[in-house]
Design brief:
Layout (H helix, E strand, L loop, with lengths): L1 H17 L39 E3 L12 E2 L2 E2 L8 E8 L9 E4 L9 E10 L5 E3 L3 E5 L5 H5 L7 E2 L13 E8 L6 E5 L9 E3 L13 E13 L20 E2 L11 H6 L2 E3 L12 H13 L4 E6 L3 H6 L4 H15 L7 E5 L12 H7 L1 E8 L2
Parallel strand pairs: 10-14, 16-17
Antiparallel strand pairs: 1-4, 2-3, 4-13, 5-11, 6-10, 6-13, 7-12, 8-9, 8-11, 15-18, 16-18
Length: 380
């Protein structure tokens, strides 16, 4: 009977993955569990999640044994899931380090591809019976499982964190943390938690809400749900927050480049990608910021000569008539000229589907092939 239950669980996970539309995080909403939860630190029941440390993350599900690990009522208060019927829980802060911090870790269903852009996202909510709230809620992408010695030395820096690294105090609704991320190409693991030492973590005491029964835990305890890592080619946007001016956040680069440092001009131009809808050469609204950026850089560097190369995906190439890849390159060139770039410094090439960015045959993968790229071929 146990074997049958495990088989059904694995089938459920596989089905959930198939419907995740490109999410590289399996069981990202902690729906599929192999056993009824009856004790602390049961995250391993939500395969393939684990913690990577001796102290384990918790798992909450309506099918748990007893109320401590149930949904919505549980040991840390009352919280409805963001997605589905379950969620995880971790300690992000503990007063005087009385309790160890806990982490969520998972091996992605496939490794990230070099220079591809991904949307990395999770939803968080502070437990109603948490006495503290804190900052430093982060997501860390790595080639190998989290290095415990590096964690203890404070040598791990999460790539995905709130732009202001704010203290998350919301106890009645879920808040999203997300950023776009350009991969080095060797990332296979995702770890969630507070990677900073207590001395570098800001905390704030929380009053217990009126009407809530139970003693407050002397921790900053957060529920985690709806975790995803998705190729941006299949995602409409990755904006969980805006800056004071209302503009979207800047892309976070996995390379050793601070978001506050100015990129090399050539690198900034060549890292830009303009993506298109199937069989279309119309520049999309969300690409106009990148177009303006490239045009401004070319105005500032009038000697730069740039090759603009258009591409199609193999599926649309069969359907369309004419050279859509060249049309895309021409459209981008025309728009750059309108924005002030020098026309005689721009060359266009159409490669059709002969140089794909990815061999991924999914809808998201093919969307990534429908692109225009830039190459600085001369600075004189």
């Amino acid at each position: 009977m146990k074997r049958l239950f495990s088989f059904i669980t694995l089938l459920s996970i596989a089905a959930g993955s198939a419907f995740a539309q490109g999410n590289l995080v399996q069981n990202g909403s902690f729906e599929s569990v192999s056993k009824k939860i009856k004790e602390q630190g049961s995250i391993v029941y939500a395969y393939p999640w684990n913690s990577g440390t001796e102290a384990k993350a918790d798992l909450f599900n309506p099918k748990s044994k007893g109320e401590d690990w149930g949904v919505p009522m549980n040991l840390y208060g009352d919280g409805d899931p963001k997605d589905g019927e379950g969620y995880a829980g971790i300690v992000m802060y503990s007063y005087k380090d009385a309790e160890p911090k806990t982490y969520l870790q998972i091996k992605l269903s496939s490794g990230l591809e070099e220079e591809k852009v991904y949307c990395v996202k999770m939803s968080v909510m502070l437990g109603l019976l948490s006495k503290y709230a804190c900052n430093n809620l982060g997501m860390y992408l790595s080639e190998k499982p989290m290095d415990i010695e590096a964690l203890q030395a404070g040598a791990i820096t999460p790539q995905i964190i709130h732009s202001q690294n704010k203290i998350f105090m919301e106890q009645f609704d879920w808040e999203d943390i997300c950023h776009t991320f350009i991969a080095n190409g060797n990332e296979k693991y995702l770890t969630i938690g507070n990677f900073a030492p207590s001395s570098e973590t800001q905390e704030e005491k929380i009053r217990k809400p009126k009407g809530i029964i139970g003693s407050q835990a002397r921790t900053g305890y957060y529920y985690i749900d709806d975790v995803s890592v998705m190729n941006m080619a299949g995602v409409e946007s990755c904006d969980c927050e805006v800056d004071a001016s209302g503009s979207s956040l800047q892309v976070k680069y996995s390379k050793e480049i601070s978001s506050e440092m100015e990129l090399d001009v050539t690198e900034d131009i060549e890292m830009t990608r303009i993506y298109f809808d199937e069989a279309s050469s119309v520049i999309k609204e969300d690409a106009k910021v990148d177009m303006q950026k490239v045009a401004t850089l070319l105005q500032q560097h009038p000697k730069y000569k740039v090759k603009i190369t258009g591409h199609t995906d193999p599926v649309e190439e069969v359907k369309v008539t004419g050279d859509v890849s060249l049309q895309r390159a021409q459209t981008v060139k025309d728009q750059l000229v309108k924005l002030g770039a020098y026309e005689n410094k721009l060359l266009i090439v159409g490669l059709q589907d002969f140089d794909p960015s990815t061999e991924d045959a999914s809808v998201a993968g093919q969307a990534q092939n429908r692109r225009v790229v830039f190459e600085v071929i001369s600075k004189e």
